[in-house]
Amino acid sequence: MNTARPLIRLVLWAVMLPSLFLVKTLANDSNKHLSIAVGWSKPPYVIALNDTGYEIELARNVFKRMGYSITPVYVPYGRTLSMLKNTKVDAALTLSGNTATQSIHLTHSYIQYQNVAVSLQSSNFKINRPNDLAQHSVASFQTATQILGKAYADAIKKAPLYVELPDQRRQVGMLLNGSISVLVMDVNIFNHLHSALESIEDRQSVNIHNIFPPTHYHVGFLNVELKEQFNQALSDFQASQAYDTLVKKYHIFQEALSTH
Q1: How much of the chain, in percent, has pLDDT values that exceed 90?
Q2: Signal peptide location in the record (predicted)?
Q3: Is 220 found in the same domain as 101?
Q4: Rounded to whole angstroms, how far apart are CA atoms 210 and 154?
């Protein structure tokens, strides 16, 4: 009886099985990847040039705990929701609470922006509520009228000039060069861009008018199971030392981080 042939087959299977298992594992790993719609650069939250920023790194850490890698897809902020609706991406960051539908599932609040009105100190404006903006030229971010409430939307209808721009660096420049008299944006974004545009020696003094409540943002998914996984992973990450380290790294104001 020739036992050599069965023995050869056994040896071949012993060699091939680990390779087949590795190929299958790599294939499964390659599927654990998500594309995420993200609004254009808004440092310190999103720095598209090198895929960093507080919000990007927060999301990446949470998705990593879920077992996923991510690829940010940068679009004007006003297009993130449509990218998700049209299934161009697997998820979208920085969605407001009123964007939930039967097909778009929102996570718990994962980040909070503190929008403020900013004016040059030399202007000596008294701005104590959104209605006071009606007499000023104002620039803000895309979809601000949908996010900042009815009082704000009504006020800027009466403003002599009102623009919403995707480029927030340009918005800050418009305030500093006098093209507009009031800027509405997140205080952390303003502080970052103001420091980048003007040196300490030449930096113009500004007044920060805290006339808006904090704005809570969510991640939107088409897959409800991913939403639930994200909520759990977010809770775990926020309880970790890595989360505290991330907050300190980007100098995010602690009072802008509470969630509901």
Answers
A1: 79
A2: none
A3: yes
A4: 18
- My answer on whether 50 and 62 are in the same domain is yes
Q: Tell me: the pLDDT tens digits for 192-239?
A: 999 999 998 899 999 999 999 999 999 999 999 999 999 999 999 999
Q: What is the number of structural domains in the chain?
A: 2
Tell me the two tokens of residue 168.
């927030």
CA angle 52, 57, 63 (to 5 degrees): 135
pLDDT at residue 13, as a whole number: 40
- For 126-151, write each residue's pLDDT tens digit: 999 999 999 999 999 999 999 999 99
Of 88, 123, 117, 93, nearest to 106 (Cα)?
93
**Domain boundaries, position 176:** 115-209
Judgement on whether residues 92 and 132 belong to the same structural domain of the protein: no
- CATH assignment of the domain containing 144: 3.40.190.10
Q: Are residues 50 and 77 in the same domain?
A: yes
Statement to judge: residues 39 and 95 lie in one domain:
yes
Instruction: Kindly report whether the global pTM for this prediction surpasses the value 0.90.
Output: no
Do 130 and 48 lie in one domain? The reply is no
Rounded to the nearest integer, the mean pLDDT of the chain is: 88
